[in-house]
Amino acid sequence: MLEILKVCEIFVSIQGESSYTGFPCVFVRLSGCNLHCRYCDTIYARKEYLLMSLSDVIAQVEAKGFRLVEITGGEPLLQEATPILVKEMLNRGYQVLVETNGSLSIDMISKGAIRIVDFKCPSSGMMDYNDYDNIYRLVAGHDEVKFVIGNREDYSFALDLRKRILESGWYGTINFSPVFGELEPRELAEWILRDKLDVRLNLQLHKYIWRDIERGV
Q1: What residues have CB less than 8 Å from 150, skipping those under 6 apart?
Q2: Whole-number Å distance between alpha carbons of 26 and 23
Q3: Which of 35, 39, 68, 184 is paired with 148 by a 20 to 30 Å CA distance?
Q4: What is the 3-state secondary structure (H, E, C) of the chain?
Q5: Which of 139, 150, 93 minimizes the C-alpha distance to 117?
Q6: CATH for 4-209?
Q7: Do 44 and 94 touch, CB atoms closer than 8 A?
Q8: What is the pLDDT of residues 85-113, one digit of tens each?
Q9: pTM for this predicted structure
Q10: 6-42 pLDDT per residue, tens
């Protein structure tokens, strides 16, 4: 079963997050998650899926016609075939992003991919599941870190963990993302500017473009 994947959906959209925001991207959303974040906006991906062979997934991605691919979820690292999918897409010359919730080791994913680690803040309710050893698995200048921030407590947590990450010797893009509909982007922007942080304000662009659509964007 190593080459069988539980796939929730495959679609093309504008990349809405990370330093790749704004670029057309093929999304492979895998099913299943080991966390229950309070603000989760892809709850449907926990259980909805079709069983697809690795070759069928690759064929669907290739048919979309774009070279940027994101493997997401759910939590993509739960599936044994995910590292194989990533490697195959890289071998075909695709630029591959893998977004993970930070609870599992990213070592299983090829360092050729851009691994985006979403360390969970307190308001998610899942902070205790962070695998902080992922700090030392990040490739400097290549992988990215993300914090979803809903309030001042989350912001303080992100500041402390950011300091720890930088003290490890890693450097790269750190994304601070406001919880959509809870923390105003302006407020988070003002905190960042006041504290003179070298971080990226990460707005979910797709939610501003397609406000009336909840999935497939």
Answers
A1: 39, 121, 123, 124, 178, 179, 182, 183
A2: 10
A3: 68
A4: CCCEEEEEEEEEEECCCCCCCCCEEEEEEECCCCCCCCCCCCHHHHCCCEEEEHHHHHHHHHHHCCCEEEEECCCHHHCCCHHHHHHHHHHCCCEEEEEECCCCCHHHCCCCCEEEEEECCHHHCCHHHCCHHHHHCCCCCCCEEEEEECCHHHHHHHHHHHHHHHHCCCCCEEEEEECCCCCCHHHHHHHHHHCCCCCEECCCHHHHHCCCCCCCC
A5: 139
A6: 3.20.20.70
A7: no
A8: 999 999 999 999 999 999 999 999 999 99
A9: 0.94
A10: 999 999 999 999 999 999 999 999 999 999 999 998 9
Work out the number of other CB atoms within 10 angstroms of the CB of residue 30: 27
Q: Phi then psi for 71, rounded to 5 degrees?
A: -100, 120
Contact assessment for residue 88 and residue 46, using Cβ atoms and an 8 Å cutoff: no
User: How do strand 173-178 and strand 4-14 relate by DSSP bridges?
Assistant: unpaired
160 phi-psi bin (left φ>0, alpha ψ -120 to 50, beta other): alpha
Sign of torsion, CA 183 187 188 191?
negative
Tokens of 115: 């691994």
Q: Take residue 211 and report the two structure tokens written for it.
A: 């406000």
